[in-house]
Design brief:
Helices cover 29% and strands 28% of the residues. The protein is α+β, with helices and mostly antiparallel strands. It has a single domain (2-146), classed as Gcn5-related N-acetyltransferase (GNAT) (Aminopeptidase). A seven-stranded mixed β-sheet has the order 1-2-3-4-5-7-6. The longest helix has 15 residues, at 86-100. The chain is globular and about 35 Å long.
């Protein structure tokens, strides 16, 4: 069994937020080699828990940028848990959160890798949900009317 939960830190102090996000930050550190940044506290985060292994295995976040656009990024799945649909679960939770808050479009910021193959894998993964490329190399866009859940269903 797998469980996903949203973590909201928008009304917390910095100390409270960092405590709530410690498991998210541990996953990001392992996957990306980086920890927290200035977008963490105003963001909503998703964390995925694998009951069989009693371990948090994936995470991601959504926030509003300066132009009041919904942005998802920092989607991370521990390497030994990849190809088990955990990333899919993260994306669907984040996209559903944005659309339930009234978004008509969502941007996805791809993690920057020097390896072109990893960038292509990320892009292809997000395209399963009908995210489209933009003029920016690491930014994709999804319009609500184009949303596909990744399993062949739209909303």
């Amino acid at each position: 069994m797998v469980k996903g939960r949203m973590i909201d830190t928008s009304t917390d102090t910095v100390q409270e937020a960092m405590e709530k996000l410690k498991d998210v930050l541990a996953i990001r550190k392992e996957v990306f080699g980086t920890g927290s940044d200035e977008k963490d506290i105003p963001a909503s985060h998703v964390i995925i828990f694998d009951n069989d292994d009693c371990k948090n295995v994936a995470c991601g976040r959504i926030y509003m940028n300066e132009a009041y656009e919904f942005v998802i990024d920092k989607i991370a799945v521990l390497e030994s848990y990849r190809n088990r649909k955990y990333g899919d679960f993260v994306v669907r939770m984040l996209v559903d959160k944005a659309f339930s808050c009234g978004a008509t479009q969502i941007y996805a910021v791809l993690s920057e890798y020097e390896d072109d193959k990893k960038m292509l894998e990320q892009t292809n993964f997000m395209k399963k949900y009908n995210f489209k490329e933009t003029d920016s190399i690491n930014l994709l866009k999804l319009n609500r009317k184009d949303y596909c859940t990744g399993c062949g269903h739209g909303i």
